[in-house]
Amino acid sequence: MTDRRENLILILPGLLLLCVAFFLPILRMLALSVEGEDGRTLAHFQRFLGDAFYLGVLWRTVRLSLIITFVCAVVGFPMAYIMARSSARVRLWLIVMVILPLMTSVVVRTFGWMVVLSRNGIIPELARDMGLAGRSFTLMQTESAIVIGMVQVLLPFMVLTILSVLSRIDGRLEEAARTMGCTFIQTVRAVVLPLALPGITAGAILVFTLSASSFITPSLLGGSRIQVLAASIYRSVTQTLDWPFAAAQSVILFSGILLVLIPYIRQQSRHRG
Amino acid sequence: MVSAVPAAWRVAGWIFVIAIGIFLLGPLVVVIGVSLSESQFIAFPPQGLSLKWYQAVLTDERYLSSAWISLRLALLVTCAATLIGGAAAIAIHRRSLPGSQALATLFLSPLILPTIIFAIGMLMFWSAVFGPLTFLTLAIGHLMICIPYVVRTTTAVLADADPFLEEAARTMGASRLQRLWHVVVPQCLPGLAVSAFFCFNISFDEAVLSLFLRHPGLTTLPVRIYGQLEFSPDPSVAAVSSIMIGITVILLVVIDRILGIHRISAT
Q: What percent of chain A has pLDDT over 90?
């Protein structure tokens, strides 16, 4: 037996599984999206792109994902920076604080937000007590609820991605900047932020992809009235049972995500190569 | 020290961290709070204190059968993913196969694809080719999202391992199988252990695939909770959710005891 054959045996189960259970299903989905009563058709795409309702769903998905990504980046960078500069002990606890929610089921976390944001939940009640809102004020079934819930779900991804870049930055660079007379904020802006940028970009792309394709948190917090693309796909599969239309919507979602991913991957490989 | 952070920023930093902590952990605390409530309705802060919702869950046939399905699924997926992914990682690491860089990318590609798209494909493909959905369908689905994590973690661990150990074993006359089992597998072990915990956690908590591939006899715990949340949540959902949070905490503690938390954040 040669080395090559041994490695082939090792990799074969995974490779076969990947082809049969991963790539074939995706091809099947692609094929179904152009399948019509009589032969191939683009009708499902036309139906989506010609309907103001679905275009609204698409626009809402893009808009909310952008907001969620932006909030995660703005909050995630300082958080990651503090973690990177804390003592080992403190950092460990902060990592636990970030990873514990990450490892908890999205369904469970969303449930927590349903309780907090509902009409007699803590946040609307607080807003009423402070006179900021009327008596019937609720956050449930609003886009704000989706943003709040999704930021909590996705923030850990952003923080951990930025942290892994920040912890590779040489701390002496900051020392040098400070010795040269930079204030703390100037140092962060002129030294840390530019060096952390690859991490922020990677985190932003990850968060954008994940938020554009999630439906559990958006449908539980936004209700059926405020639909996002992924929720609409789920509806087509389970309620209207229109699989070809669901496939077409998935293709649209995936193309959108590739539109963001491909330039990034290209740029990455240029950097490495 | 020149680089000291000004006191005002330090204080602001602490306030910020505490706020983020409340934001990230708050929902979990609320769920646990609701589960301890005496009232029939979901309310936080809890009214009264009782464990009756836990009792309700532990005697509820539907929750128990879902928990059993989730547990079997997670254990099966963990074993299979660690085995298949670990073997693939070893082969990829050795770079003797043609196009091993492409193979590595291939194995990691499920990480890039949103789960919902894979879930749809799996549903449509399986229904068209094999017919009705079974436990196996869901297991294979979970397997496909777990294997990339195993491959990524294990190749990272192998990259730090001493490449000459296997060579040494070869010169000393160890057979192929002996080299694999006594040298390479022990080198992968930390990676395999971390991935196993990850796989269990991913499979046990996974809801997207499980929602698309569900049928009346195949409702995992997260899907059961999702269904309850859509229609009629009562504090028993909070009790199940709290149990799931508890399992996550236990997993984290075990990982920390065995390998140290710092390892997870590195992968």
A: 63
Query: For residue A21, what are the contacts with CB-CB under 8 A and spacing of at least 6?
Result: B122, B140, B141, B143, B144
* Mean pLDDT (whole number) for A121-131: 82
pLDDT tens, A11-61? 999 999 999 999 999 999 999 999 887 778 888 999 999 999 999 999 999
What are A88-125's pLDDT values in tens digits? 889 989 999 999 999 999 999 999 999 999 877 888 88
Contact A15 B103 (CB under 8 A): yes
How high is the ipTM of this complex? 0.91
Length of chain A, please? 273
Q: Which residue in A has a C-alpha nearest to residue B125's C-alpha?
A: A25
CA of B230, closest CA in chain A: separation in Å?
A: 7
CA distance B191 to B92: 15
pTM for the full model? 0.91
- Give the pLDDT mean for B174-201: 90
Listed residue (A80, A19, A53) closest to B13, CA to CA: A80
Chain B residues touching residue A122 (CB < 8 angstroms): 30, 44
**Interface touch A24/B125, C-beta < 8 Å:** yes
* A25 close contact with B: CB closer than 8 A: yes
Whole-number Å distance between alpha carbons of A22 and A74: 35
Rounded CA-CA distance B142/B200 in Å is 10
